[in-house]
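If you are new to this repository, start here. Below is one unmodified record pulled from the training split, so you can see the exact layout before writing a loader.
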Amino acid sequence: MAGLIQAVPDLGLSAVFLITWLKPDTFGPQFVKRLVLVMLLEFLVIHSAGFMGAATISAGSPVKRLLVILGFGLFYSLFTGAFSLAFHTSWPFISFWILVANRMLGVVVSPAGDLKAAKVVMSGWALTVAAYLGCCFLTVLVPMPRLGITADVITRQDFTGGGLWIDQPQTAIAFGCFYFLVVGLGEMLLVRRLAAAETDRRQ
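And here is the target side for that same chain:
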């Protein structure tokens, strides 16, 4: 059960990226642009999650852990608020808090007490760092197919600026699909190994 609590949100996000990669208009005409922004925000979430995880380890009750996360979240919201003002939309701000909730869910509400131990919390954070860097390099070095993201779809996104993710947004969409899949499966494996170790100790 604890493994599912950890993994389901990430696997769900991976599915959203995959669906958008195949059929970009499924969730809206500019959803590709929003998911590109999600991957930019995820970098900020990973950065903040390291501090949040370390702080929540010493917090005793779920209420205290939640307050710690809210405190750090409000600080990082200054950056996401700037993104929202720059893009003239509340989407970056809302997305950041959704991603934070996804990343810290197990620490706050998991029924498995050992999930809050320092080793597990920091291992989960290390997993996201390794997955982000690995999937980023993979999608940059290996050409990603466009699938449903045609030139017309890209034009509808009204991107500003330039760069690989702007000129070839399928790269960022593939990145998100792979990244959240790896994190979700990795979290399930981490929790299963933890459960197995706990069972061995009790025996």
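Two things worth knowing about this chain: The mean pLDDT is 80. DSSP finds eight helices and no strands in the chain.
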